[in-house]
Amino acid sequence: MNSFNKLKPYLDKQNALFTALTLFEWDNATKAPEKAIDNTSAVMGILSDEYYNALINDDVTFLLNTLCKEQLSALESSIVKELKNAYDDVRPIPQAEYSAYKALTAKASSVWQKAKKNNDYALFAPVLKEIIDYKKKFAAYKAKDRGYNGPLYDILLDEYEKGFNTQILDTFFNRLKDTIIPLVRMVSKKSDKIDKHYNELHYDIDKQREVSHRLAKYIGFDFTKGVMLESAHPFTTNLHNRDVRITTAFFENNLESAMFSTIHEGGHALYEMHIDDALTMTPVGTGTSMGFHEGQSRLFENNIGRSRAFWTPLYPQLQETFKEQLNDITLDHFILGINKSQPSLIRTEADELTYCLHIIIRYEIEKYVINNDFDIDLLPKLWNDKYEEYLGIRPENDSEGILQDIHWSCGDFGYFPSYAIGTAIAAQIYAHLKTAINIDDCLEKGNFAAINDYLKEHLHRFGKTKTTNELLSGMMGENFNPQYYIDYLNEKYTALYSSL
Amino acid sequence: MNSFNKLKPYLDKQNALFTALTLFEWDNATKAPEKAIDNTSAVMGILSDEYYNALINDDVTFLLNTLCKEQLSALESSIVKELKNAYDDVRPIPQAEYSAYKALTAKASSVWQKAKKNNDYALFAPVLKEIIDYKKKFAAYKAKDRGYNGPLYDILLDEYEKGFNTQILDTFFNRLKDTIIPLVRMVSKKSDKIDKHYNELHYDIDKQREVSHRLAKYIGFDFTKGVMLESAHPFTTNLHNRDVRITTAFFENNLESAMFSTIHEGGHALYEMHIDDALTMTPVGTGTSMGFHEGQSRLFENNIGRSRAFWTPLYPQLQETFKEQLNDITLDHFILGINKSQPSLIRTEADELTYCLHIIIRYEIEKYVINNDFDIDLLPKLWNDKYEEYLGIRPENDSEGILQDIHWSCGDFGYFPSYAIGTAIAAQIYAHLKTAINIDDCLEKGNFAAINDYLKEHLHRFGKTKTTNELLSGMMGENFNPQYYIDYLNEKYTALYSSL
Known about the structure:
Two copies of one chain form a homodimer.
Chain A: H1 3-30, H2 37-55, H3 58-67, H4 74-90, H5 95-117, H6 121-146, H7 152-160, H8 166-190, H9 205-218, E1 226-230, E2 236-240, E3 243-248, H10 255-273, H11 290-304, H12 308-321, H13 323-326, H14 331-338, H15 355-371, H16 379-391, H17 416-436, H18 439-444, H19 448-458, H20 468-476, H21 483-497
Parallel strand pairs in A: 1-3
Antiparallel strand pairs in A: 2-3
Helix pairs in contact in A: 1-2, 1-3, 5-6, 6-7, 8-15, 8-21, 9-10, 10-11, 11-17, 15-16, 15-17, 17-21
């Protein structure tokens, strides 16, 4: 038995426990009864410890050391490399501190929730401070382990997006700011002219469910390998490539919300459904990174889902479903409506153009608090000042300011930039699809299979066996390049708003 | 640290893994996409091996030996005793044989399904033979381990109902046959006079869902601690006492089916919801036995759910919901309808009176094949002969004969008798409730809380810390006594059918 075969039982056990935890999370967000959570959390805590033990133990340590000297197949190498990543992310942290940190974040989300509800930053501040201190301490352990001396925030960025660091992101974000801020000013002056009143009329929830189901099916979501339910906040999860699950949230007075979240989560889901059978249920059997995943969901939601070509075959049916509300809204009007851009305070409700400014603000604050000593009490002011500077609007309270996102209460520092990276990846893939398969033509003809086949063949099926840059350069001979995104925004919004 | 505290991590791990497996099973039966099963089964196989390893290992062996000599609290003693039962049920079987057997039963259900669909007993026979051989071999291992020399079938019965054996069941079933067979003959002559045509009219599924939801709530099912979904075959499962789940199946042309399966599963669910917080998520934190569980579900479904007192406050609302179909059906007519009894071939569709005859047939066949050498090809004839003898009807093919139940394909020999034991337990509890709380009065007044409070206090909260006999004698000073059931059937059917 070679060493890789000896590793196999550990990989299987890690996967089984991780899959069980995923199912519990899904179930908690969709169907579990409200009073179940305390008992169920105890069960999840034990499964999570078991996962830790299956990942970090003497046998795995020994096998990882042995395997790096052995001849392995390409797939085996990828798996070992990915396992090593996961191992190195956790091993430098003493188990007692890791458990204490997990207990802290388990508690923190409910403190955050309460603080947000009561607009009480002071309640959340000490917990947030403690989480940040842990993140810095853990990053320092990892830096030491790797002999790395640069800014600690790079360690956190690397967890979500291998190969990305502050240097790359500073360049990216500075270029973005230079482009978007003037564009936002131009567009927001004109966008008042777009009447979007129709979107806030009453839309029957059952009919919205039908529309979302139809949209998911239309973009290729395979209901024999997937499930679509409802939850408070839409999300995607997967047990393996034949069990991918999305949720949608429906609102009676908002037609767009559920439609675009279905297309967005559908994009995530298709990526997971397209992963090779040989990879699924191994450490490389899922999307290569947070950013690349977001690249797929945003490609579907924005570049594709907000295009005229996409709606050309679909809009008549939508109009038919909601005759009363959409009868007088032409396709042109609808396209302007779904692309109406205006600075706003809440990230999750932001439009395609202003979205990245929300991310840049979080990135700058994260970089600052991780790399420097800071005063936790001054963060709300820093947040508000940045909103005023970049978006021209200032939050009136912390609930719609620094308390709006759940991420920091979960310890997810370094995660936000993935949204922006994903947005840029989406634009880059979209630019390529224009020439490679004439995507507008596919969309107008309703030929979604051509798009999915191409994405599966050139990007999706590889899972984590290739990095973001390897995937992009493999497909189009070019690494990550945010210029595509900048060009896309300029062209799109100039063209769209030229008539106003 | 005393030895019990050393055992705790193993108990927690067993519970966490068992709970995860339960959630997967629930999910497979309700929401999982159809193509997920192969991958998900692989995950479940690994979790199931982990469960085995958490139960059977040198530490647990050592601790069980140590703990039997130590001073323990009452709860600790119960937990250790129950763990020892689970341990002794599995440990005598060599792990390789246990795995091979599990692989066999995993495959067998789909073979059975195909055989049933195609009325092809010959397809299933060799698999069934192999399963029976394993069951006999495993029972022999356990018999040897316990120094037991009696009939092997007793070993299997003991797995589902501690303290019950062929001697007790032979006596029980012989008395039952003596009573039911003449009663069935009397009743079936008269039951043609009951017009039940109304039950097969068209009943809107959405309205049926409302009715089932209302019924579940009415009998005390707490939706903050429970979930109700749909599946092909109704069942109940639980993650712990604050997460209890039932399913119902709805049929357009059958009003009774979903209503009574909701009440039945609701009875199972209430038992689990009522278990003490101190016991849940421990080895004693669930219903004490299969039979006692069935005692609760049948108490609700039959003794309570088919009584006039139960429907007195509820029937007008049902009539209102299904005006068109039930307008001309009086309460008296409806009560006769839900208690119409006629010999039939399919166990799951059998009425309250004939149901146990189906069980007796299975019991006699199981006892025969486990305790004797037998010819697998002769079983269908044996089955059909018994149906003719006891029920006066003969299956025309094996699909509606020996192939009708899934149980044997899962290796569940010794399970069927629990249904009959449960039915008798239900009648015994019901007899007690008549005097203890005047149950008819509670039902007529819609005071379900009084019934649930009583059951919780005297039976349900104890989980597995008491056996069936301890629970019954604790409540009413008398062990299991099937005479209550025999009296109940005689009185009920004589009274009901006297007018016909």
